[in-house]
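Q: What would this chain look like folded?
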Amino acid sequence: MNHNPIPVWPESPLPPIVCVVGYKDTGKTGVSVRLVRELRRRGYRVGAVKHGHGFQFDHPRTDSWRLTHEGGADPVLLTGPEGFALLGEWDEGGEPHLEDLVRRHFDDRDVIVAEGFKRDHFPKIEVHRRGHNPKLVYESSGPLADTFLALVTDADDLDVPLPTFASHAPETIASLAELVVVRVIEPPACATPCGTQMRNAAGSPRATTSAKSG
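A: My prediction, written as structure tokens:
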């Protein structure tokens, strides 16, 4: 498997963000879940964002639906002993950028794992499954090529200039977590400019005192 050097992202005011990207049914959620679990095991406070389409959490005639659609409240916060949910709709500007969502809702987290957002300028881990789609999101000559951290795949013959990990290898998630810690959560200071297009790609080290790098 490839283990070529990759860029280090500079600091920004945002919590560090890493996106898990790939085509449909390649296993993005499974990798995201295991990566979150491993980062939490290391002591980091982890938030998650899932990009989706066509979902609906509220239903007509419920109390929360009436507050929104009859009363006009936006957003509506549901809260109780079991937890909370914030329900709302986007204004005429549409869906905010990922960085705006993170800044609004996750400013106390050490790292955010976002599933989707393959067109954003944040560090990315691609999940690839040859049987579902032989193509890669990663393009070596594409404008976002430098944002890719690693590739997780079931193919053993891909020649890409990325650290590449086998989908079902037991050490893959620990290796990915270490990569995220070193390159995204706690990157060393850049000795030379890291590129303006990546200026928002990772945040300042925010790990708690209990966080470890492995």
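The CA atoms of residues 5 and 62 lie 53 Å apart.
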